[in-house]
């Protein structure tokens, strides 16, 4: 894989397009200082993926673009292309040459191409990995690279070895694996969060599901009962229908027989009329007047018959009313007899009641007399007993009392003297205590006033603190609610964003194309849905209008679309639609612009949906003939007006298609649609922001409230301490005051008691002295007491009689209560009989009134009947006169008349039978219709339950209609006891558990994925470590060998700083130059450092030859002898590697196969001259 050419345009000093061809072997680029030689190596470094501008001698990105000269303007872009020979297919591309191009614009935009196909920088880096010219390799050693390589940290030096060892691609795979592992860990954490949130909801959902299961079971039981009830009613209705239908069939047969008979009679009548026709013609002239009179007579007879029938009915009705009146009179008579009997029974019971009351009063009077005698007897006995006892007791008492009085006189005299002395002492002490109490009371009142003030202040502060605490707790509650809400909103938003990132609403083919990393990926503008911004109002309409077009891809050109279609076809990856920007355009027609202004039309879809200007053609092409309407009425009206030329979509997603067909119905949930998700993400983001701001405000407010609560608490604490101190002082003072009051009261009381005792003692002494004298006189005159009276037998007998009378009174009262109950019962019966008699009287009055009316009607009918009979007799007389004139003709017509009369009678009889059958048939029809309605109603009930009569039989249960009714009432009661029930609770719980199971499976899959990724990372580490160790060992050997050649002796070797894990450690260089000790790299001269880097580079080439290598003035610090060795060593390796050396040294130029001269013919602009040395050698 050789470097064929390098193309530069606008890169640094190469303003014009410059092509540099590189031959095999060694190419030396020469030229004066500042002519732009090193810009060539910078260009190669940049095109291979260098991202740090400082490494290509710039400060910012635009520094690498030609900045202009005195005669030229600055370029707006810089471009470098590197063409490699790929005939050996070292690169995984099917072309003999590989072109790598990088382009940068002044606005900072960059473009990358592989074989003129757009790609990413990462694609270039992956393509060149493990080729020896990838990122971190030493294929380009610039003017400042020598010191940078030698003075680099060991870990930075290891990166160069990794590229040479060919493990950089493994490193990239490891980084990719670690990124995927991190992503899997993040997904695991996210799923765990979602699972935790759902597990918190499990128990409430389980409870709801349990209620829903019970509710469903009860509903099923209710349905079973309702179906059974409906089937029972249906069966009953059908039984009655069958019964009445049979009756109807029988009546129909009777009607048919009557109709047949009527037809037969009619036929005979017609035949008779035909026979009489001739006869009537002969008699018509003679019997004209007779016929009129006859007709008149017949009419009068008919009227008479009608009146007779009315008279008959009226008489029957009169008889019925008369009988009813007689029955009512008889019933009233019986009622009055019952009333009289009840009244007699009531009088007897009342008499019994009066007798009982009189008996009770007599017993009570007898009892009162006995009680009076008993009291008198007891009083007499008590008096006698008391007199005797008092006589004995009085004598003894007088003796004892005389002795006591003598003793009291002596005692009271001593007590009076003692009381007088104590009373005087206590009076003095009380006077002193009163003065101390007054002073203490004054101080206590002042302290109480202060305590009252502190108490009021404490209550106010406590109320303020309680209020502040309540506000604080409410703030805390709202803050927690908002934080929980924010977390829920954040999780929901992230979940939706994840779904949007994963393009869940797009087709599998679209996702496959978007995930591809081919060269054409840069030419995909994006899915159509991502390029459109739909206002909230038009979300449903946009989903329907676009449909599957949401996932169709917008690309820059039709060539790109064709390339991707070929790629999909080759990979059998499905189909999708592409919208090339260069081939799709559209403009609204005049007619649709007119339609867009119709009432109820919001506008053209292409104009209502926001989008970038560059896809306007595509929008007009696919949505330019679609109108958005407010509702279906406006859509239909507009479609009809414009002859169904356009497709019209309503805001709620209903469609009137071009041509007149209509599409509509319910839609998916809004959060399952693409634009619904986008709208919800926007809303959730706004809500999250608002919640975040609100939480910040609430947190700040809560902190202020916390400070207020703390300050109030401190104030309350201070006041409480002061109150407690004052309260203790007041309590102490009050205790002293109470003690003083008690002491004063005690002393005053004691003093008063002593004073009272003194007075009492004096009074008692005088009384005792007086009593002693009286007692002596009484004892002198007192008689000796007699014997006590015997036991009171009379009173005991009287008490027994009173007890017996009490029992009689109780029995009498019981009997009296029973009789009073009978009286009330009889009185109630009498009241009912009176009401019945009154109602019977009213009924008789109504019947009498009806009878009078009916009699009047009979009388009127008789009058009319007499008049009509009289008229009939007159007509008959006249008819007889006429009849005599036509005897002969009447005799001949007699047979005809008799036959006609017989037929008329038959006609009337059959017609009456038909009318009766028809009437009964009408009644049956009404009843059948009622039962058919019942049948239809019950069938509708079954239909509303989603059942047919056949399928409903499977729900039938045993039991009567009353049992089913009770069962349904019980079920309704149990349903009511369940309270509010979510009918979808069970399904929601199952869905919830399925989601939990899904999350568990996801967690398991993610953990397996993590384990797999970790295993892959470990395997990559092991492979990298093994390959690195192998490469390091060989490079170390080569480095030692080349060092000896370069320095003509000495030693050099490489060492790992971390031998256990070399990929995480660094590489140290140890050198011992000829005749010197091992020394630090910093102490080496410039030439020694340059030779060391050359030795390191060549050791790399010995292990893994790079396709080419750029050395930029690396020989500047070498003397001629070292340049000679340097040139010889490079000559040994140029068979496998192209060397492009930038140098000023003639000795180096001698080794060149090709010389490239860089100069500035125009100031500030580099140009190139190529000389092939071998051509000149041949000429010489």
The tally of beta strands, per DSSP, is 24
Largest sheet: 6 strands, antiparallel
Straight-line N-to-C gap: 33 Å
- Count of runs of 4 or more consecutive helical residues: 23
Strand percentage: 5-15%
Strand order of the largest sheet: 2-1-4-5-6-7
Structural class: alpha/beta
Q: So what's the overall shape?
A: flat
Unreliable residue stretches: 783-788
Q: Approximately how much helix is present in the residues?
A: 55-70%
Q: What's the pLDDT, averaged over the residues?
A: 77
Rounded radius of gyration (Å):
66 Å
Keywords: ATP-binding, Coiled coil, Cytoplasm, DNA-binding, Nucleotide-binding
Binding site for ATP: 32-39
Domain SMC hinge: 522-639
Family: Belongs to the SMC family.
Report on this model:
With 1180 residues, the protein is an alpha/beta fold. Among the domains are: 397-507 and 675-777; 535-667, Alpha-Beta Plaits (2-Layer Sandwich); 902-948. It is built from 23 helices and 24 strands. The protein has a 6-stranded antiparallel beta sheet with strand order 2-1-4-5-6-7. A 6-stranded mixed beta sheet has the order 8-21-22-3-23-24. The chain has a 5-stranded mixed beta sheet with strand order 13-15-16-17-18, with helices on both faces. Strand 1 and strand 2 (18-21) form a beta hairpin. Helix 5 (168-284) packs antiparallel against helix 16, helix 5 (168-284) packs antiparallel against helix 18 and helix 6 packs across helix 15 (793-885). The protein is flat and about 170 Å long. Residues 783-788 have low confidence and may be disordered.
